[in-house]
Write a structure and sequence with these properties.
Oligomer: heterodimer
Number of helices of chain A: 8
CATH superfamily of the largest domain in chain B: P-loop containing nucleotide triphosphate hydrolases
Largest interface: A-B, 29 and 39 residues
Shape of chain A: globular
Order of helices and strands of chain A: EHHHHHHHH
Strand order of the largest sheet of chain B: 7-8-9-4-10-11
Low-confidence stretches of chain A: none
Helix content of chain B: 25-40%
Radius of gyration of chain B: 17 Å
Helix content of chain A: over 70%
Radius of gyration of chain A: 19 Å
Number of domains of chain A: 1
Number of domains of chain B: 2
Structural class of chain A: mainly alpha
CATH architecture of the largest domain in chain B: 3-Layer(aba) Sandwich
Shape of chain B: globular
CATH topology of the largest domain in chain B: Rossmann fold
Number of strands of chain A: 1
CATH class of the largest domain in chain B: Alpha Beta
Structural class of chain B: alpha/beta
Mean pLDDT of chain A: 92
Mean pLDDT of chain B: 88
Order of helices and strands of chain B: EEEEHEEHEHHHEHEHEEH
Number of strands of chain B: 11
Chain lengths: 230, 249
């Protein structure tokens, strides 16, 4: 009987499921990211003067800036688990397309960031008393688009940074400039949603998010094999 | 029935399963592997000896497709190792590092590998591999809770779970106790006898020569000796090996 190596999507799912199983067992990255995000919200809340800046103006920027920084914590761990006992060698020696490793990691990271968003966005509504119930669905869409962009870029840079001595420093240095268009677009879209503005006003920002996801999603997938080549 | 990877393999026992031709790898100015050529056929085992830094691990990484050669080429089971993922399906790799995930159990690690290699029954294949390495009774234990020796046995089970045609072993006896060493020797001999080609890198001449059909000594990136095991007297070989190695000291 002959075995047949899995195709791109099956292999990606195997890698993603393995990463999620490891995170489910350890829970360290998820909880540290969540705590970081909630602490960030708390600090901004206490530093905020509601008499000078309205909550509706402040909350979108706070939310997406916190996601950008807290996401880095989770992304750092993404390839860290492969480094501990050189498990990455076993992945690269297996009959997988290199792209499958990237896509699997990205899917796991997306679910990871989504989990953090699920807790943090309601917490934001609580802290800043902003009415999110009416815009829950469009906001979920913005959160998904922003998370895809963060994860696409962050996963690639995580694979590059993990082999360096300054991984903790290098990942934010490489990622944050690329996160900027995501944070700005997501904040602007959220601000317009919160203000009840017509959807047409948010569309230009949404287009940037969509374009970013498309361009960097494809580019990072194609570039990943070169980052793991020796 | 053992499940074999798909794709070309040796059509006849005389066809090479592993074929390295003038294989070289350079890191900056240093040539870690320098023009290595050899052929391994089904059921053959090359025991590779050499001092630290001789280029043995780099050679194994080239053969596993983890490193791109600077020049030369290498074919595994009739396929260029750098030409695509199918060639890698024929290779099993055991290294110094366990290449396992500490948070997952031994079974989950081996089963994950079986799925990556497309085994039709990953659970059964994982169970068989763990049993062959005499570690089935610890299958559900998280790898991080196992001793170094047990981790190494699980790592070997991971490498042989897909019944590879080529098994590359880099110091596989590291950290193994007597039982583990015996299980490993038995598993390697079984793989060799069932037609797999083995490349065994070790510092232990006794263990290496016990399994070998060919023996080679590597020094400064090149094979300085390479011969059939049948023409090698273990005692004389050990003495000559020591002399060669001390040239570097």
């Amino acid at each position: 009987m002959q075995s047949t190596p899995p195709g791109l999507f099956r292999a990606s799912w195997l890698v993603a499921r393995k990463d999620l199983a490891i995170e489910f067992r350890t829970r360290t990255a998820f909880f540290s990211t969540l705590v970081f995000a909630l602490l960030g919200l708390t600090i901004f809340f206490f530093a905020w003067d509601p008499t000078t800046v309205a909550a509706i103006d402040l909350a979108p920027g706070v939310l997406w800036a916190i996601f950008a920084f807290s996401g880095l914590l989770g992304l750092q761990r993404s390839f860290g688990v492969e480094q501990a006992d050189r498990a990455m060698d076993a992945l690269l020696a297996a009959p997988l397309d290199r792209e499958a490793v990237y896509l699997g990691k990205a899917v796991a990271n997306l679910l990871f960031v989504g989990g953090v968003q699920l807790v943090t966005i309601p917490a934001l509504a609580l802290f800043y008393n902003v009415p999110l119930a009416g815009i829950a669905l469009p906001l979920a869409g913005v959160a998904l688009l922003a998370a895809i962009g963060l994860v696409a870029v962050g996963t690639l840079f995580s694979s590059m940074a993990v082999n360096t001595r300054l991984a903790e420093l290098l990942l934010p240095m490489l990622s944050l400039p690329f996160f900027l268009p995501i944070v700005v677009s997501a904040s602007m879209t959220t601000a317009r949603l919160l203000a009840g503005r017509p959807a047409a006003e948010a569309w230009p920002w949404l287009r940037i998010l969509l374009a970013f996801d498309l361009v960097f999603g494809v580019a990072c997938t194609l570039l990943f094999p070169f980052t793991v080549e020796e | 029935m053992p499940q074999q990877p798909a794709g070309p393999v040796a059509a006849s026992p005389d066809d090479p399963v592993v074929e390295a031709e003038a294989l070289a790898r350079q890191f900056g100015a240093r040539r870690a592997v320098d023009g290595v050529s050899f052929v391994l056929r089904a059921g053959e085992c090359l025991a590779l000896f050499g001092p630290n830094g001789a280029g043995k691990t780099t050679l194994l990484r080239l053969l596993a497709g983890l490193l791109a050669p600077s020049s030369g080429h290498c074919r595994v089971a009739g396929l260029g190792i750098r030409d695509g993922k199918l060639a890698r399906a024929h290779v099993g790799l055991v290294s110094h590092a366990s290449m396992l995930y500490g948070a997952l159990s031994a079974r989950e690690n081996v089963e994950f590998a079986a799925k990556l290699y497309g085994m039709p029954d990953p659970a059964g294949a994982a169970r068989d591999a763990l049993r062959s390495m005499r570690v089935l009774d610890r299958a559900e234990a998280p790898v991080r809770s196992l001793s170094r020796g047990l981790q190494q046995r699980v790592s070997i089970a991971r490498a042989i779970v897909h019944s590879p045609h080529v098994l590359l072993c880099d110091e596989p006896y590291t950290g193994l106790d007597e039982l583990g060493s015996a299980a490993l020797t038995e598993a390697l001999a079984e793989r060799r006898d069932s037609g797999a080609a083995l490349l065994l890198v070790t510092h232990n001449l006794g263990e290496g020569l016990a399994l070998a059909t060919q023996a080679a000594i590597m020094r400064r990136g090149s094979f300085v000796r390479h011969e059939n095991r049948s023409g090698v007297d273990a005692g004389t070989y050990a003495m000559e090996y020591r002399e060669l190695v001390t040239l570097d000291a």
